[in-house]
Amino acid sequence: MMIRSSLFAASLIVAPFAFAQEQRVFRDWVATCDNTRHCSLIGLSLVDSERWIHLRFERSGEPSAGIGTMHIEFGEPLVDAGEWSLWSGENRLFVVAEGERRCGEPYPDDLCDAILIADEGRKKQILRELRRSDALTLVVDDEVMAGVSLDGASAALLWMDDRQGRVGSETALVHPGDRPTSALAQPPAPPEVRVRPGVWLALAEERVRTIAEEILRGIAPDRCDRRQPPDPEEVGSYAVQSDAVWQDGEGRMLTSVSCYGGAYNFSSIWFIRFGSGSWQEVDFPRPVRGATETGGELINAGFDPASGLLESFNKGRGYGDCGTNAVWGWDGERFVLVEWRAMAECRGVGPEHWPVLYRTARP
Predict the structure, then answer these.
(1) What is the layout of strands, in order, in the sheet containing 301-304?
(2) Is 130 helix (H, G, I), strand (E, B) or coil?
(3) SS3 of 225, please?
(4) What DSSP element (H or E) covers 273?
(5) Could you say which of 114, 183, 246, 320 has the lowest number of CB atoms within 10 Å?
(6) What is the pLDDT, as a whole number, of residue 233?
(7) Spatial contact of 296 and 284, defined as CB atoms under 8 Å apart
(8) How would you classify the pairing of strands 297-299 and 266-274?
């Protein structure tokens, strides 16, 4: 079932993190560029397709960069048998070679979950069809298995060219010109972040309970709903995750206090205390709709003390095919944003394939 999400507006602009990152939806295509002008395009399934499938590819902001490997990802694996071919409308583009099928792990060896197109000639074939066809379909023997909609593909390609400053240049995909590659600007470098995990130890349950109760006394009741389910069958509407407290070798304490919960999203508010000071709500910087938001309330968040990384995964729906995914790292004084991913459309794209809106470099 294909569902269009209202999770985001058609344009998700997330400045001012070093470069105005943006995610746009052009009908059935999701286009994204990050803070280094690295862009990705995702074409979604045909509305009447029987199975999830999407086409995705990326292009870095480097002036001479070409299109990377094209991925045609399946929502469920297909049996590795018969002749696979890719069609544009009524025209067969090419037969998919066995070496272009990604088979095996985590599935049995006779199941394949993607087609990987690295050949430059075949990539050019597909790029041409994106601008003049309605759909790309995968056919196994004589059976149409799934189709990718090309509605919006031309607009997405042009938008990517524009964001990377390629329009009118010899590297443009839609409106090429005489401007040489040497005239294109170099992309911004990713900001460098240093994550210092330290030595964080989890405190015992009784100590955690005492600290959580202390913190809850200072939180407005309507902000942190910890009601118990009135009926065991309604636990999905009220369930909360466990509170947690970690302490490092320098006397800092990091606390996660669980609040409201639902069927697939659970909220927590995070606090930190330095030595004998008071509890402070952690500021997690995140880019949301044209501004930098902070604050300690996160969705489906967990901390890995061994790495110093803290991750949040906010699902747009239970299937987990839209929403936001953020990773922060402890730099010795605060949590800094390491990576931000988002997917605006709820149409079968798993979180491992969500495009990056903000990336960093870690020495």
Answers:
(1) 301-304, 309-315, 323-330, 335-343, 356-359
(2) helix
(3) coil
(4) strand 266-274
(5) 183
(6) 53
(7) yes
(8) antiparallel
Q: Is the confidence at residue 314, as pLDDT, over 50?
A: yes
On the question of a cis peptide bond just before residue 355, with omega within 30 degrees of 0, the verdict is no
Domain 37-183 has CATH 2.60.40: yes
In angstroms, the CA 355 to CA 324 distance is: 10
Handedness of CA 146, 66, 8, 286 (dihedral sign): positive
CA distance 43 to 302: 31
Torsion angles phi and psi, residue 225, rounded to 5: -85, 110
DSSP 8-state class, residue 16: T
Among 312, 336, 305, 304, CA closest to 193: 336
CB-based burial label for 157 (10 Å; 0-12, 13-18, 19+) = buried
Q: Could you tell me the two tokens for 76? A: 């469920």
Q: CA–CA separation, 330 vs 339, rounded Å? A: 13
Domain regions of the chain by residue span: 37-183, 201-359
Does the pLDDT at position 193 exceed 90? yes
pLDDT digits (tens, 9 = 90+) for 31-43: 999 999 999 999 9
Q: What is the pLDDT of residues 227-268, one digit of tens each?
A: 554 454 554 444 456 899 999 988 899 999 999 887 889 999
| Rounded average pLDDT over 194-206 | 91
Beta-carbon contacts of 189 under 8 Å, excluding residues fewer than 6 positions away, are: 36, 361
Write the burial class of residue 160 (CB in 10 Å: 0-12 exposed, 13-18 middle, 19+ buried): buried
